[in-house]
């Protein structure tokens, strides 16, 4: 078949329209038609691109134990004859000692220049320090500024109250019973400087300390969980066949949802989780440990039910332990597969992976007779 331009050129029928064979863009200096407006718009876009492509200079600055990354961008004026504006610079903290980090945290200029520092620091500080130590350094900073002019002290206390309010709202789990001593220091500092009396920029200091203390005092001590009685008889592994697969999936999803809703993001840091097995660190990441424990419980339930045995008899001398037959194990495999499918429909991927990992474990994978009986 001939190309369309050749077919149009060789067509001998009466012309029904105009064939565009070539075009030439208009000069922007010629008039103000639609073409000229389009070219003008293109010039504006080019100017914006030139501004976006302004030269950037990046360097590091060290100051009182802190390293800052400074970014300077030199923009070009739209008019070539206009004077060049001064460069726009921004400075962000890249590294520093803990004392330097606290100074930067309480610096009034940080909230406007480095807007992401406060939230990032509060979310990750447990990787390199503790909450009592951080509150102690904040109290040290405020006590050191009591001899400074009122203006600097007022700004710093205002930033400290804002940081503590954000901290309490975003990470309330950080304020446990171990921070009572540091809260006393902060409250004393606010009282001495007159910023906890309910007036001035620190008028919210009294309410903040009250909220922090209520959070600390309301924490109930962890009670020991009841243990299973030694005389309890083990459950029959075939009992799981009595329940519907969708009911089991719903119960697993409810348990997982409760655990993941109470998960603390700061406890997911790799630097914390990697130290969980070290001596004295057994208390780290309790919310993450709870999800891991639930995962292992589900996987263990699958393995113990498929590899379990039935018992008959009531007396101690009359109990007979019989291993499950391949058809019984096949029914259990089918049940757990249906439970995993229901969990997947409920978007409970934690239980899905727990069941699948148990079914793929070596002891269950070797049950060839049971897998052969499974539908």
From TrEMBL:
Residues 77-88 have a biased composition (Pro residues). Residues 1-92 are annotated as: Disordered. Keywords: Guanine-nucleotide releasing factor. Residues 244-375 form the Ras-GEF domain. One of its GO terms (cellular component) is plasma membrane. Residues 43-65 have a biased composition (Acidic residues). The keyword Cytoplasm does not apply. Residues 89-213 form the N-terminal Ras-GEF domain. Residues 31-42 have a biased composition (Gly residues). One of its GO terms (biological process) is Ras protein signal transduction. GO terms for molecular function: guanyl-nucleotide exchange factor activity. The keyword Cell cycle does not apply. InterPro entries: Ras-like_GEF, Ras-like_Gua-exchang_fac_N, Ras_GEF_dom_sf, RASGEF_cat_dom, RASGEF_cat_dom_sf. This is Ral guanine nucleotide dissociation stimulator-like 2. It comes from Gulo gulo (Wolverine). The lineage of its organism: Eukaryota, Metazoa, Chordata, Craniata, Vertebrata.
């Amino acid at each position: 078949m001939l190309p369309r331009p050749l077919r149009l050129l060789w067509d001998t029928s009466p012309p029904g329209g105009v064939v565009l064979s070539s075009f030439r863009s208009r000069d922007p200096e010629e008039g103000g038609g639609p073409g000229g407006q389009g070219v003008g718009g293109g010039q504006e876009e080019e100017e914006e691109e030139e501004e976006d492509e302004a030269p950037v200079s990046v360097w590091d600055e060290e100051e009182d134990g802190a390293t800052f990354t400074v970014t300077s961008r030199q923009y070009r004026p739209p008019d070539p004859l206009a004077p060049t504006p001064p460069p726009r610079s921004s400075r962000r903290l890249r590294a520093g000692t803990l004392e330097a980090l606290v100074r930067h945290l309480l610096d009034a200029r940080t909230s406007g220049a480095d807007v992401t520092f406060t939230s990032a620091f509060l979310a990750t500080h447990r990787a390199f320090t503790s909450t009592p130590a951080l509150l102690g350094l904040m109290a040290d900073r405020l006590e050191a500024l009591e001899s400074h002019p009122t203006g600097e002290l007022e700004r710093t206390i205002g930033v400290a109250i804002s940081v503590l309010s954000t901290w309490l709202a975003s990470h309330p789990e950080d304020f446990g019973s171990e921070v009572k001593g540091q809260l006393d220091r902060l409250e004393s500092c606010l009282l001495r400087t007159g910023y906890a009396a309910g007036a001035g920029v620190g008028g919210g200091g009294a309410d903040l300390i009250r909220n922090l203390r209520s959070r600390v005092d309301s924490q109930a001590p962890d009670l020991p969980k009841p243990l299973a009685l030694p005389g309890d008889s083990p459950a029959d592994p075939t009992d799981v066949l009595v329940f519907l697969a969708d009911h089991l999936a719903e119960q697993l999803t409810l348990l997982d949802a409760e655990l993941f809703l109470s998960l603390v993001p700061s406890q997911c840091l790799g630097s914390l989780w990697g130290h969980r097995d070290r001596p004295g660190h057994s208390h780290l990441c309790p919310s993450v440990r709870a999800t891991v424990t639930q995962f292992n419980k589900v996987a263990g339930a699958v393995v113990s039910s498929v590899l379990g045995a039935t018992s008959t008899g009531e007396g101690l001398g009359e109990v007979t332990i019989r291993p499950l037959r391949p058809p019984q194990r096949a029914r259990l495999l089918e049940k757990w597969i249906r439970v995993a499918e229901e969990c997947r429909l409920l978007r409970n991927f934690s239980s899905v992976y727990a069941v699948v990992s148990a079914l793929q474990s070596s002891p269950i994978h070797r049950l060839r007779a049971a897998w052969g009986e499974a539908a």
